[in-house]
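In this section we walk through a basic example: taking a raw amino acid sequence and producing a predicted 3D structure, encoded as discrete structure tokens. The instruction is simple. Fold the sequence below.
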Amino acid sequence: MKKLLLASAATALFAGAASAEDIKIGVILGFTGPLESITPNMAAGAEMAMSEVNASGKFSLGTLVSVRADSTCVDAAAATAAAERLVTAEGIKAIMGADCSGVTGAILQNVARPNGVGMISPSATSPALSTADDDGLFFRTAPSDARQGVVMTDIIKERGFTSVALTYTNNDYGKGLADSFQQAFEAAGGTVTISVPHEDGKGDYSAEVASLASAGGEILVVAGYTDQGGKGIIQASLDSGAFETFVLPDGMVGQQIATDLGAGLNTSFGQYPGTDSAGAEMYQGMATAAGYDGTSAFSSESYDAAALIALAMAAAGSTESKDWSTKVMDLANAPGEPILPGELGKALELIAAGQDIDYVGATAVELIGAGESAGNYREVQFKDGEVVTVKFR
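The resulting token sequence is shown next.
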């Protein structure tokens, strides 16, 4: 029955023309570009949260409607234009997104702040976003890469490696993660033999791989994108025999790269945000029933981002960002009744009754600092085209 209700609500979410009571939420993700293989599961997560809220009958402010837009992940001008269209033409009340750090920062500064629109990103991880001017409008359910650098260091050291070559996609995400990792790895006694950027969209990465190989290193850390340059670097390394073991951080982990490279990744490993909490298990079951992969990178964070937007609106009694954005931190942290996936109707009832909630969600949400996840990670390894969970950190 729950599957039927969710499916019916999802259908209603996109059907017909908007009414006066529709509350539009912009879902801005890279539906094209270097993360396009994982963004469908991210959008599905966010839209399932909206469907759940609508199906509960407990959201008194109207009907949540998802309006998708393509951030491209890497083109700041295109992402800004897409966000502007959602604000001016669609009248969105919030942004679930964006995904990649550079376009997220561009939307925040060029669209969200000037128009007073709140944003919750499920996947923008650049440490620079922790201190960005945001007028209290920006949050993220993903942790900063300052945390990922430490986690990645621990995983590499525990596997017995002491020297690495490092390449990163030449943008805010790649540079921020590379710097955080190098600082943590060297502080732990490791050696980074070389740290160089690579450009996405090239057909041949043999020159970059030759430079990396000449510097030495037991393994290659690739802080790139799963559908673009990062994948190209790995393929060129395998073709030339330069490296056989790769470390794949969050932007590199996806089923598509595992399928495409198959046994070529059999000695490789990595990590992306994730938790083994009760909420994670519940969410994955809901996603499976809805027909998509809830274990995919940043899908659960997207569910949590959309859920927090809706619950914050309910707590504020307003869909205006200046109002609901002030409620996010309180809802995402103790004290209060813990709320898990599938319990958004219960949360709305408690909010209406004036009771505190602690939104735990699918990722054991705890927002720290200016409003970002404290950070839990899923350690993975690759085996014959599959992404296998090792443990959680």
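Looking at the output, two observations stand out. Residues 118 and 148 are 25 Å apart (CA to CA). DSSP finds 14 helices and 16 strands in the chain. In the next section we compare this with other chains.
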